[in-house]
C-alpha cells in the first residue's frame, strides 16, 4: 500500500513534453542560444500532492532526489510563498514517474505545477510567468498548458493547435545534462536553420515522415551509444520519425493509433526490459 497523503491534500498532474523538432542557432554574445522548437505536452508525467502547512516541506516518492533548495519544486514553492508575502507553508509530495534528466521537461513541469497549485491554495494575484522565468527556460511553457512554438531562449511562446498524436517514449537509462549537450553542439558547430512548422503540422496526422530535426541529437548520440540504439529500436518496431527529445536521453516516435503505440511499446519493453518505455499521446 502506498503511504497515505496528508489531510487536505490536492493532487495535480504535471505533464511531460516532447520537442517535435529543435533548431539551435550559434551562440549569441551573451552565451545563450536562439532556439526554434515546437513543444507539446503529453498525457504522461509526474504527480504533485499539495497540502497547507505551517512550514514548507518537500517529500519525493519514486526517485532519489534532494528535498531542499537543490530541487526545483522546492525553489518554486519558496519563490511563490515569498512573493505572496505569506507566513504559511505547504507540504509537497512529488510522485516522480518520469526519468530524471531525460529531455521530457519533468523538473520544469513539476515547478510550474507547484506555482499553479500554490496560487490556488494561497491566491495573491501574482504574475506566475515572472516567477517562472528565473526557474528555468521551460517553466513558462508548462504554465501555458498547451502546444507552442518556443523561440529566443525559450521565453517567446506562440500557442498553436497540434493534432492529438499517439507516440512511444523510450529512455535507455542514461542521464544527459542540457549544459553538456549544448557544449558538445558548440564544439561541433552543427547549428541548424529554423523548423518548417507548417510542414511538421501537416505531416503529423497523415502518415508521412515528419521533417523535424533535433540539433542536439547528433552530438549527444555520438557520446551515448544507447541513444542511437533507442532510436533504432523505435524504427525497428514500425514507428514513424524517431527523434530525441530536447537534450535527451529520451527518444520518441509516432504511432498510427493508440493501439499501435501500446503494441509497439510492449514489443520494445520485452526486447529491452531495462529501459523505461511508455505509450502515450500529445495533449
TrEMBL record:
Q: Where does ATP bind?
A: 99-109
The record's EC number reads 2.7.1.148
According to its UniProt record, which reaction does this protein catalyse?
A: 4-CDP-2-C-methyl-D-erythritol + ATP = 4-CDP-2-C-methyl-D-erythritol 2-phosphate + ADP + H(+)
GHMP kinase C-terminal domain mapped to chain residues: 216-273
Q: Name one GO molecular function term.
A: 4-(cytidine 5'-diphospho)-2-C-methyl-D-erythritol kinase activity
UniProt keyword list: ATP-binding, Isoprene biosynthesis, Kinase, Nucleotide-binding, Transferase
Q: Which Pfam families match?
A: GHMP_kinases_C, GHMP_kinases_N
Q: Which residues form the GHMP kinase N-terminal domain?
A: 71-145
Q: What is the superkingdom listed in this entry's lineage?
A: Bacteria
Q: Where is the active site?
A: 17, 138
Q: Does the keyword ATP-binding apply?
A: yes
Pathway, per Swiss-Prot/TrEMBL?
Isoprenoid biosynthesis; isopentenyl diphosphate biosynthesis via DXP pathway; isopentenyl diphosphate from 1-deoxy-D-xylulose 5-phosphate: step 3/6
Q: What class of enzyme is it?
A: transferase
Family, per entry: Belongs to the GHMP kinase family. IspE subfamily.
Which function does this protein serve?
Catalyzes the phosphorylation of the position 2 hydroxy group of 4-diphosphocytidyl-2C-methyl-D-erythritol.
Q: What is this protein called?
A: 4-diphosphocytidyl-2-C-methyl-D-erythritol kinase
Give the organism the record lists.
Deinococcus rufus
Q: Which gene is the coding source of this polypeptide chain?
A: ispE
Amino acid at each position: 500500500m502506498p503511504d497515505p497523503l496528508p489531510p487536505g491534500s490536492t493532487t495535480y498532474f504535471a505533464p511531460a513534453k516532447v520537442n517535435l523538432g529543435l533548431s539551435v542557432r550559434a551562440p549569441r554574445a551573451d552565451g545563450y542560444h536562439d532556439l526554434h522548437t515546437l513543444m507539446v505536452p503529453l498525457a504522461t508525467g509526474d504527480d504533485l500532492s499539495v497540502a497547507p502547512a505551517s512550514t514548507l516541506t518537500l517529500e519525493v516518492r519514486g526517485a532519489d532526489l534532494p528535498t531542499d533548495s537543490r530541487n526545483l519544486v522546492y525553489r518554486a514553492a519558496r519563490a511563490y510563498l515569498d512573493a505572496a508575502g505569506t507566513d504559511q507553508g505547504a507540504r509537497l509530495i512529488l510522485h516522480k514517474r518520469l526519468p530524471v534528466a531525460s529531455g521530457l521537461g519533468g523538473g520544469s513541469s513539476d515547478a510550474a505545477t507547484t506555482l499553479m497549485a500554490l496560487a490556488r491554495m494561497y491566491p495573491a494575484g501574482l504574475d506566475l510567468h515572472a516567477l517562472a522565468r528565473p526557474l528555468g527556460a521551460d517553466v513558462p511553457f508548462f504554465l501555458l498548458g498547451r502546444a507552442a512554438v518556443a523561440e529566443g531562449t525559450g521565453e517567446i511562446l506562440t500557442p498553436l493547435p497540434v493534432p492529438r498524436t499517439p507516440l512511444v517514449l523510450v529512455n535507455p537509462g542514461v542521464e544527459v545534462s542540457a549544459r553538456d549537450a549544448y557544449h558538445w553542439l558548440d564544439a561541433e558547430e552543427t547549428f541548424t536553420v529554423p523548423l518548417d512548422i507548417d510542414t511538421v503540422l501537416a505531416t503529423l496526422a497523415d502518415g508521412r515522415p515528419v521533417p523535424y530535426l533535433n540539433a542536439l541529437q547528433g552530438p549527444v548520440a555520438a557520446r551515448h551509444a544507447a541513444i542511437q540504439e533507442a532510436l533504432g529500436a523505435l524504427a525497428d518496431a514500425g514507428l514513424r520519425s524517431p527523434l530525441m527529445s530536447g537534450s535527451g536521453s529520451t527518444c520518441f516516435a509516432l504511432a498510427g493509433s493508440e493501439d499501435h503505440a501500446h503494441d509497439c511499446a510492449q514489443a520494445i519493453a520485452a526486447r529491452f526490459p531495462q529501459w523505461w518505455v511508455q505509450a502515450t499521446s500529445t495533449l
